[in-house]
Amino acid sequence: MIIGGQSSRMISRKLITMSSIQQYINYRKSLAKYLEELRELINVPVTEVTLVPLDEVARIRKKLVEKITICPQKKFRIPFPEKTGQRFRTFIEQLEQLNSSPIYIWTEAANGCGLFQASSLIKINLDFSYDVNSQGIIVILTKDLRDRMIWDFFEENSEKIIEVELMGETWPQSRCYEI
Known about the structure:
Shape: globular
Order of helices and strands: EEHEHEHEHEEEE
Helix content: 25-40%
């Protein structure tokens, strides 16, 4: 079909190109801030080449959705500053013992820039600032996709809080924060 002197195939190709250009512009705008966010979360420099490519991120997301089943969950809240204390460090070490798979760090920016893979959960810098990302959400996902943890940090009654949610086959078994 010809539209305004151009075939619909040519118009589709232009739309894809325009979409790709917009994705690239958004990627370039977000990348520097995202790399800084990751650097603060793991205390080492991160470069663009260390990120998992977006096509692989899409495959991981698809596998994760396929794997979602009713699985054990655990949730608790602590004051944000307590995440740097010994009890929380012990908790992270317990999780590492329960599942020592490498991890992905997934924040909103990962959707457009790529995931970061760390060799171990204990590589995360627990002394990250409250303002590390504007959404206040960090997802830690094991590479084997068996466990995940969500850190949701927010203010409640003028107190900074971090809510930790564990899901999966092994991490919810941790007993460090049982009441």
